[in-house]
Amino acid sequence: MKETGSIRFDDQVIAVTGAGRGLGRAFSLALAERGARLLLLDNGCDAQGQGCDDSLAQEVAGLIRNLDGEALPLCVDVTDYSALADALATGVAHFGRINSVVACAGILIPQQVRCDLGEYRRMMEVNHFGTVNLVHAAMEQLTEQQGHIVVCSGFSGLYGDRDLGGFGASMMANRGFMLSVAQRMEEAGIRCNALCPSASTRMVDKLYSDEQRQKLQISAVVPALLYLLSRDAPNGATLTAAAGQFTLARTVETHGIRLKPENLRPEELCLAWDELDSESVVTPYASFRERIRRLLQR
């Protein structure tokens, strides 16, 4: 095991979206405790993306100041690229730079297969395009500072869930975006990773049983975020964090089969399916909920 000193963020300026509640709030406070200066971005909407309350980010900023830290809270909608770019420019004017960004803003609306497509699009706008907006708007600063990017993904994106089609799609979109950014920007010294957390927050609280809520504490996710922003962070990783367990999620394939040109017919694929399906190299999970159940049974 490699050795490491205390992970600190002194002289680092980190922008966090969704900083007013839940994971974003916990991440911001933990970063401040370790010396970071925070640009807190949150419009204070509810879990379904409605409303606006600028007091939430203000409250977190107050808590950070009580820790003798420094924070600038700004009320901004991550779906509004111009407003988000202006907020980042305000942060640069205030702090002098932005070293890293954490894309944590998100909404969740449970859905069936037949659903309100407007709600589906709203989740994609906030969860995915809000992430893309942040990274694009901050890229000049990130390149200058050789900074870090952490985007939030989710188990429902990795494994699916019968009630979270739109949310899961936005989470998987974030992971695909992260993988592309990590490959493209590595030569510029930027590290981009995805955090796939599961914790009992207001957004997902109804999905869990009482026992699961007790175990899925937000504090158990925080170490993953801190590591992904550290100087020892990897690049292009998807780190899962839930109930004190951490894993790396990877896209894998079985060894596969090769059909001869004369056998390129669907019937041949049907005959070979058992062979194709027999070489799983990772533990399969049927859904996000099964992933959590089996996690907590260990």
From TrEMBL:
Cell membrane found in the keyword field = no
InterPro entries in the cross-refs = NAD(P)-bd_dom_sf, Peroxisomal_Beta-Oxidation, SDR_fam
Q: What name is this protein filed under?
A: SDR family NAD(P)-dependent oxidoreductase
Protein keywords:
Oxidoreductase
Q: Which family does it belong to?
A: Belongs to the short-chain dehydrogenases/reductases (SDR) family.
Please name the GO terms that the record assigns under molecular function: oxidoreductase activity
Q: Which organism is it from?
A: Ferrimonas sediminicola
